[in-house]
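Pilot study result, target chain (246 residues):
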Amino acid sequence: MSDPIIEFRQVSKSFNGTPVLSGMDLAIRPAETVTVIGGSGIGKSVTLKLIVGLMKPEAGQVLIEGEDIVPLTEDQLIRVRKKIGMVFQGGAIFDSLSVGENIAYPLREHTTMSEKDIRDRVRETLHLVGLDGIEDKDPAELSGGMRKRVALARAIALAPRIILYDEPTTGLDPTNTEKINELIVDMDEKLGVTSVVVTHDMRSAFKISDRIALLYQGKIVFAGTPHQIESSDLPVVRQFIAGSMV
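Predicted structure:
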């Protein structure tokens, strides 16, 4: 079995003295899609921010490809972040830029690609997310589902090894939710990336995940395949699946 591409070792994080993560352990293998589920405000989005180095824990290690990123400076983290694409909950699309300029932004910031190569890469990423030919559109012209797909196109522009999704289907109707789920699966198959997804949507979690990890009281209390979590007899797992977990 290959070494983890992402690993949390006894990670603790608190805010204003209130623990959010309390000695959390989690290992994610290359090319695996792991969905982190749990109640509101329990540290799911914090987990993503720790992976990309936007936050630092008070204790423990966060390893990316075997390297502990916790001690790294902001300048040193740039190298790590180039391996990671992030799709934020609201998309975080720049409304002042066209779709093409949004996707080109990380390429201009972090590469020495020519403008022709950047245009080609923008077209390529839009094709991958099923949005051919919309480079010149303004974000305001796009539906919520299209904005999510543009955000994904921008996230994969630098050909990352890891993609992080923060509530990718929030605010979408069932049709667009299904399209985003299919797109996440498609990206994993076509690009061979490792995906970490945070969601409240159990139907999405069952559809897209190789494994589902339940975060509860600061720790991962269960991690297994969709079938394993569905058949688990642990009370906290049953409560969450039933929708009664607080």
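One observation from the pilot: The longest strand covers residues 18-28. A full batch analysis is planned for the follow-on phase.
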